[in-house]
Structures are given as C-alpha cells and as structure tokens.
Amino acid sequence: MRFRTLICLIVASALGYARQPVHARHGMVVAQEPIATDVGVKVLQSGGNAIDAAVAVGLALAVTHPFAGNIGGGGFMLVRFADGRSTFIDFREKAPLASSRNMYLDANGNVTKDSVLGWRASGVPGSVRGFELAHKKYGHKSWADVVEPAVRLASDGFTVSYSLGQSLKSEGTVRKLSMFPDSKRIFLGVDIGGNLLQPELAATLKRIQANPDDFYEGEIARKLAADMKANGGLITLQDLQDYRAIERTPLRGKYHDYDVITSPPPSSGGVGILQMLGMLEGSGYDKTGAGSAASIHYVAEVMRRFYADRSEYLGDPDFVKNPITKLLDPTYIARRRATIDRQHATPSSQIRPGNLNDQESTQTTHFNVVDSDGNAVAVTYTLNGGFGSGVTAPGLGFLLNNEMDDFASKPGSENMFHLIQGEANAIQPGKRPLSSMTPTILLHDGKFFMAVGAPGGSRIINGVLQVILNVLDFHMNVQDAVDWPRFHHQWMPDELFLERGISPDTASILRGMGHKIESYEATDPIVARVEAIVNADGWLQGGADGRGNAKAEGY
Hints:
- Helix content is about 35%, strand content about 15%.
- It is of the alpha+beta class.
- It folds into two domains: about 1-265 and about 360-420 and about 435-485 and about 525-555, Gamma-glutamyltranspeptidase, small (S) subunit (Glutamine Phosphoribosylpyrophosphate, subunit 1, domain 1), CATH 3.60.20; about 270-315 and about 325-360 and about 495-525, Serum Albumin, Chain A, Domain 1.
- The strands form four sheets. A seven-stranded antiparallel beta sheet has the order 1-17-16-13-12-9-8. It has a seven-stranded antiparallel beta sheet with strand order 7-4-3-11-10-2-18. Strands 5-6 form a two-stranded antiparallel ribbon.
- Helix 3 (about 50-65) runs antiparallel to helix 4 (about 125-140) and helix 3 packs parallel to helix 5.
- The longest helix is centred in the middle third of the chain and has 21 residues, at about 295-315.
- The two termini are about 30 Å apart.
C-alpha cells in the first residue's frame, strides 16, 4: 500500500469515514432509500435481471422517496450488458409545445419564479416511458411483476423514516407543498414513524401496471391535461401522446487503463467527466494525496474550465450540434490544462469557454444495480428541485417536476442552481433541457468494474468525478470513496464549496492560493449524494452515501 494511501485511510478513520462496503457475490443494489433498495434485491433474487430490478426500484422510489423519486419527472438510464453491449435510455422531460423562449421573463425582462414553482414549471414527464422502454427491450420478468412492489407500497403504506419525516417538516418544503391542496393533504402532517398511505398514487400505478400507455394516452393523460389547462399549465394531451423515450449511444473514453462509459447529451455530465479526466490524466495532481490543498486546488481548476465550456456549447442534440469531438480532443484538453497555475487560482472572470475553432473535426436521485450475470445499470432521474414544482396532480397522487428551470430562461443568467447557461440551452417547444445527471459505468480489462452516479443538481458531475478519483487514484474502497468529504467549483459563481471534513487549515491554504471560500463556515454544503458499486477481489462492493438515508444491499 502506498504511503499516501495509508495516510488517506488514517484521516478517513479519524473523520468517521472508515465504514466498510456491503459485500455480495451475486447481485447488488444501492439506492437513496432503503425500502426501494430491498425491492430491487427481491426482484434479483426472484429471477429478474438488472433492468427488471432498476425499473422496480425507480417505481418504488416514486412512492417512498417523494423528494425526488417520481413518475412525474424524467431522467437517464445507462446499461452495460455482460456480453459487452451498452445503451443509454434518455427519458428526460421535454418542453411543452406551447412553451416559448421568453416565457419566464416579466415585462422588465427579469426571470420569474414560474420556472420553479407551480403548474407552469413542469416539462412533459418521461419516467414511465423510459422504464417501459427499458423493460420491454431488456427485461425478463413481466411488467406487472416489476410494478407490483410500488403498487403495494402506495396502497398499504410504509413507515415514514426519520429522513423523510424531517424533509417533510422543513420550512421550505412546508411552504412549497402548502400552496397546493393535494400536496398539503397527502404529505404534510405526516409524523416520523407513521404510516404514509397514498391511495390515489396506488390507483395511478395500478393503471400503469395494466397498461403504461394510460399515462400518455389514456385516463391518466386526459386527467392530467385537463388539470393543467384548469390551472394555467402548458402540458396538453398532445404533448403526452407525442412523448417518446430515446435510446442513444453512450459516450466512451479512457482514464489510465479503465474504460469509461457515460452519459451523452442532453446530459452535460458525460462530456464533463471525460473532459475533466482528460485534464487530470498524467498531471500528477494526486501525488500530494486526497484532501490536500494542492490536489483540491488542481481539480477545482479543472472543474471551473469544464463548467465554462458547459455554459456555451451543450444542449439537446435534437436541436443543437454539440461539439463533443472538439471538446474531448486531446489537443484541446492539453491547451485547457496548460492554463492551470499549480500555485494560484485563476479568477473565473478570466476564464472563458474554450476556442474550438482551431480544432479538427459534444435534486434528483440515483441508484445502481448489478445482477448475477454481470449486467450493470446506473439510473439517475429527477423532479429537479426537491418535491419538484410542489404540485401533486389532483386525483392522481404524483408530484410534477419543475424541470423547465433547467433551461436557460434568460441566457447568461443563473438558474436555481446558480448555473450560467447559454443559447444552446434556450427554451424551444419539444426540446429537452440540458442536464447534469451523470450515470457512469467503468470497465477494467473489458469487465464491469464500477457503476456510479448521484443526485445534487449542478454538483452531480463533480461528485461523481471525485468518487471515481478516490477509487482509481487514491485507492479507497468504495464506501470510503463515497463518504470522503468533497468540494465543488462550477466556474460561476466564482466560489469553491467545501464540505465539512475538509480541515480549516486546508481551507486557509486554498484561500491563500486565491480561492474564494466564503461559504465554508457559513453553511454546510453537500456536494451530491453519490452511490456506487465496485467489482473487486471477486466481490460486488456497495457504497451507500452517509450524507443521506441510502442503503446498499446484495445477495
């Protein structure tokens, strides 16, 4: 064991981050909520494959993790099959046909709250179509079987955990959900340890269990469209009927001797992971060890350069041309790396999106599943903000997303995650907003090695990056890797976020290098809740992030 690795583990132990991974021989599920994790394991044990289990987990989370689990939102599923094939299922929400570029600007050109709160904030949901497509093409068990656990949880209820209870009692959640009658009635006033019954959601899930088309073309669709119209929302029956989940080709790259399979646009995450790994490859940033000021500084400088590029170049590939080849070209990456000063932070005001012209010819939840055949699935899906738009569809029982805020409501201005976004991500009817969701799978010697992903808005990409680096460069086990304190820089605002656990002395050194860390003492920022599975030494090893209520379980 290298000396710096030993130092990392000693520090991790001192900080309380030395938990052991969950080990299993046959299959593993890691999800943000324990009941949903158990659902996935039972599906695997009953003969389902990783895709069956992933669909069952996703639908169960719509019941047990209303903060982000959903059927009223959308997301991405990355699959790597044991036979070497891979696919990426894009079920990201879409802008309604009635949407327009400036729909969230007031008379003075200022951004309103309509993209965040209420009926007008929702894009056309994609989760049901995405799960249906994945299961229809790649599942083994019947559709009714994989939907049944969610139906049962909604109809019979489940015990409200401390984590969910506290979330529902937070000031922001109470304020948001109180504005909408069905949300207030269903979710507020629920006590920790009580039984949360959701009969309307159960009825909706039963209709989906009988026929998933009902969500887009049947009674569910008609009811949702009518309520949208009655409340000033934009989603119509035509929008729902037109929605399709899409299979795309995953992005691929290498880091050291590992193959990286990751998310293509409309995710910005895969481009970010590959570009940042490219800047780090061969840099020697890791020689000073995990958690050192020097390594944090260098990676933060890499982060801010990618996020500057993200602001300019990426969007829905069905609407804009994403210059992925140029952004990932080794010569371009080397030029970006060469601008990094190892001793001093570069002010973000001095960093612009890179010049591609001289190159040769692009609040959320996450879970991972690996089955006994070696199929691996990484799913990130979302309502965007916690509890989405706050709206529960009347009589249908599910929360609606506020995904329209992921567009650039006013190009050049911040969204709810303080991201600056450009014209490539401006609102257009039928367009999918750019996302930070980053489900990623790594291979070693052609075999599955790691599945990783996270919720966390704009911080997802950097959270996933650091867990990969912790495993590959700092030689941590997967549990230490996900629990290790993280940091985040997204170019604008020019601020380096540090989680608790990074020492004040390190923060002081970083300030001396020119980093702005005003938030360090004032807040307790979390840089994504990452979940990961690693295949090592003949074992599947699950790492559930201790920042939340996640659970890893295998058999």
